[in-house]
Amino acid sequence: MRQETRRGHSRRARLVADSCYTIAMTDVRTDEPNDLAQRIVDELSERQIEDIALLDVSKVAGFTDYFVIGTADNERQMRAVIDTLDRDLGIEGARLRKREGTPDSGWVLLDFSDVVVHLFTAEARAFYRLDELWSRQAPLVRFG
Length: 144
Prior knowledge:
This protein is α+β, with helices and mostly antiparallel strands. The chain has helices at residues 11-18, 33-46, 75-91, 122-128, 130-135, and strands spanning 50-56, 66-71, 98-102, 107-111, 115-120, 140-143. The longest helix has 17 residues, at 75-91. The protein starts with 10 loop residues before the first helix and ends with a strand.
């Protein structure tokens, strides 16, 4: 029976990660796009990102399956979230393919292939209205 830790990793996987052996952590790998998208939503929520939206764009976009959009309170919070996603998801097998924008610009895009994360400041999100634009053609789910 698997016991879950605070981050959702199985106890077995945590023990493997803590051991001195290099072993593939198949227990925590996010192979399915919807699992990865949900993992990102959970992480953003844990980091107090506001107005999180998940859009399934798989039927209208050929370059990704999901958009996850969130609003950060400030540049420092945005930087912390970027670092956390890159580190934690990398451990779980999801590779950050591309990063565009900077926290001081008010918008950052993180491309994890099957899931693209858009982090905005409140002002930039109101200006670009990305979730409004894409929700006309794709199912939208809001969190928080």
